[in-house]
Structure formats: C-alpha cells, structure tokens
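Sample entry (193 residues):
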Amino acid sequence: MTPDILLALISFAFVTSVTPGPNNLMLMASGMNFGWRASVPHALGVSWGFAVMAIVTGLGLGAVLMALPWLMGALKLMAVAYMLWLAWKIAMAGAPGEAKAGRPMGFVAAAAFQWVNPKAWAMALGANASYAAGGGWAVVWVGLIFALVNLPTVSLWVLAGERLRGILSGPWARAVNIGLALALVASMLPVLR
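Predicted structure, serialized as tokens:
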C-alpha cells in the first residue's frame, strides 16, 4: 500500500467512523445512560468487530453477498428489525442511574452488531473496493487502519453522551433517549429504498 493510498484510507476511515450512524448513536446513548467506563467494552467491540468484518468481507464475503441478492435482502430485513428493537430499548431507557436504564452493550454484542449494521456493511464494502482491490495484505491493512482510526472517533460519541449525562436529568434525559432512538430509526430509511 503506497503512502498516498494509506493516507486516503485513513481519511476515509476517519470520515465514515466519526459521522452519525447506528454505532455512534448507540454509543452516545450508552455514554449518557451508563457513563464512559461502563461503555468502553461497547466502543472496543465496535472497533474490533468492524475490523474483523472488514477483513472477512475483503477476503470474499463481500463478493458472495453481491452474487446472492436474496441473501443481501434477508440481511437488510434482519438489520431493520434489530435496529427497531434497539431504538425501542433506547427510547424506553430511564434517566441515568434509574433501574430501568438496563446495561450497556458489551464487547461481543457490539462486535456482532456490525454484521447487521447497514452503515458498517457500506463502509466495509466501500473500503475494500477502493483500497484493497488487490486483496491479500491490503485487506488486512484496511481492517487494521479502521480499528486504529475508529476507536478514538467512536469514543468521542461516548464522551459526548457522558457530557449530556452531567447536564440532563429526569424528563430531559428521556427526551434525549427518544431523540436518539428516532435518529437510529431514521438511519434505517436509506436501507429500505
């Protein structure tokens, strides 16, 4: 991988990782409802789960999905159903510290979530098509670069949520949770087209 391609990949990873999407909205909600420390496994699961997904996609899974449109359609339906369930859980979460706020998503669940996250699929397929067309080690580089860039960017969303935690309480926390849930549902609209 040439320095120019590497810089372009880092830029692509940064922009796609820091912009709003299902992972970042859920991490913000986690930071708000559970705080930084409790949300660290969630953030690590997002970063490393996506890295593994990007590598596996680049090694051939992406080609399989493109060749089998029905499988991609089934994946989309699963993704939308799961996102709606998660949005419901976020909307129904109580204020930080309330018993009904639940538990933050753990490492394994966050890593597994990547496989039903439409934005993650778009990122993995796009990154591999653009920066790892030759396959081999380039695919591994795509995954590793994303893991290294993704963790600090998703952590910003956890920190933003934690800052909201300090500001919001009672009905305001509930309103923010509902807003985050609605944003998560809205992030599914492009998938349904």
